[in-house]
Structures are given as C-alpha cells and as structure tokens.
Amino acid sequence: MSEIVNRVANSKLITFDLEDYYPAGERVVLDIKDWLYEGLILREKDFRSQLENHDWSRYQDCYVALSCSSDAIIAGWAYMLIGTKLQPFCKKMVIGDLDTLESSLYQEIIENLDVSEYEGKPVIVKGCSNKPVPANAYLWVTAKLQTVARSVMYGEACSSVPLYKAK
Predict the structure, then answer these.
(1) Residue boundaries of the structural domains of the chain
(2) Using CA of residue 118, residue 124, residue 125, residue 131, what is the dihedral sign?
(3) Given a cut of 70, is residue 10 above it in pLDDT?
(4) How far apart are CA 61 and CA 28, in angstroms?
(5) Which of 39, 76, 120, 137 is the S-S candidate for 106 at Cβ 3.0 to 4.6 Å?
C-alpha cells in the first residue's frame, strides 16, 4: 500500500482570504425617514432641528450607511449636512445600504493593498466566508492580483476554478 500524499499541502499555492481584511467595527444604518415631515417631505428648518437634537456620539467608531426607507426625494445637501454631524464620530459613511458600505470599505482596502508578495506565484482566492464580503471585493482583488500573480484561481485548493494564467 502506498503512502497518501497531500498534494495541496505540498503545493506552492497561496491562499488569499478576503475575510482576513474585514475591517472590525459596528455597522449602522441611519434611516432619515423619521426626520422628514410625514416621512416624505424634507422641511429644512425641522430637519436641521432634528439634527441638532440627535445624539451623534452613538456613532463613535462605527461605519454608517445613510439611507431613507421612504420614497422621499432627498436633496444632496441633506446628506452632506448629516455628514458634517457624523464626521467627528464615525470611521466611514456612505449613502446607501449595508452592501454599499461593505463595498466601499473593501474598495479602499484593495486599492491600498500591497500584492508584491504574490508576484509570480499561483494564488487562490478563497471562496467561502463567514463575514459579509461583497461580490465586488472578489472582482477587485482578482483584477489586482492578476497584475502580479502567475495564476489566479477561485474556491478551495481541492476544487478551484481557474480564472487567470499569465502568458
């Protein structure tokens, strides 16, 4: 009987896990619907009053997604005004939902990522994650790795999908 050899463990394949780059911190959706007259109309004076009376410190070190769950049309300056209140407290803010927020966080991380350690090497981007890694992050990291890696694959070492191979 021959010895069983773990070819995956012995390979030069490097696993890249986007979950390792997941930024720690609370995610919060700030829905401004309740600051609108009847949930639909932005009255500037009332809106500013709501902002002045809001406890902004609750967003300390949070990532904030600004949204409006009603069908109201919100002027751009309203989100900008909210941003002036959030800025001293939150780590990052976006207009949109939690998916938009996660995409924004990962875009910044991937743009600043040093991928030189993957130069000329076969890389597999791990597919499964327990944290909410957005689909865009997989797209962006593949494009970034493609500039240096010998090959880029997706999935697990035992069942990967080839995506790119340098010529």
Answers:
(1) 7-23+104-165, 27-90
(2) negative
(3) no
(4) 11
(5) 137
What are the beta bridge partners of residue 152? 123, 164
**What residues are paired with 30 via a beta bridge?**
66
When mean pLDDT is compared across 88-97, 125-134, 146-155, the lowest value belongs to 125-134
Q: Which residue has the tokens 């010895």?
A: 3
**How many Cα atoms occupy the beta-carbon half-sphere of 79 within 13 Å?**
15
* Residue 54, token pair as written in the block: 């809001």
Its pTM stands at 0.84
Question: Which two structure tokens, joined as six digits, stand for 138?
Answer: 């997989």
SS3 content of the chain, % helix, strand, coil (to 5): 40, 20, 40
DSSP code at position 32: G
CB 107 within 8 A of CB 80: no
